[in-house]
Fold this protein.
Amino acid sequence: MIRNLLAGAALAAFFSCGARANETANALPVPAVDSAPSAPTETAVLAGGCFWGMQGVFQHVKGVKQVLAGYSGGSAGAGYEQVSSGTTGNAESVEIVFDPKQVSYGEILRVYFSVMDPTTKDYQGPDEGPQYRSEIFAANPGQQRVAAAYIAQLEKAHAFDAPIVTQLGALKGFARAEGYHQDYLINHPYEPYIVINDLPKIAKLKRLYPQLYADRPVTVARN
């Protein structure tokens, strides 16, 4: 994947600027409204910037069985080149299959809001365009209810320095991304983009929510 990022300049910016003001440095509150387990597994579809990092984070969450990188929110049949144009309506997304007895949907959202900036519209870090927007694609009314309540809870708690602009919509479909995108972080841990933008997200997961952190990631290759 080609990212509009020069490694040297990005490293300089990373070490000089540190975390952005709207990125939470502390654990977010536990969701006041959450769902109870109703099936052996459930599926969450989330968009929050480059799917390499989002996949990498949720592969380290206890109770997660599989995480796929893909596309959601737009026209069907679109591949990476089309989605990258920003014209298909799709966002780079992840499909997370999890055991609700080990990790709830609300806890999935708690991690999600902790590792990306929900106050920036159509960009995350160095990646800009509607394909990098943050959006929750609710698979059912229960997920819609939990997500809406948690966004309201975070706003009321002033968890971020600016209003949350993360979209909340109904899931209409998810398309698995090309094979070379799957497990990208695991397969390219020393790539500058990954080191700068994505490994800190996993470190944040481990620091903020050690009870949810799994040292060994679940990989697409093992499923």
Observations:
- Strands lie at 42-48, 64-72, 91-98, 123-124, 127-128, 134-138, 167-170, 174-176.
- The first helix runs from residue 7 to 17.
- The chain has seven helices and eight strands.
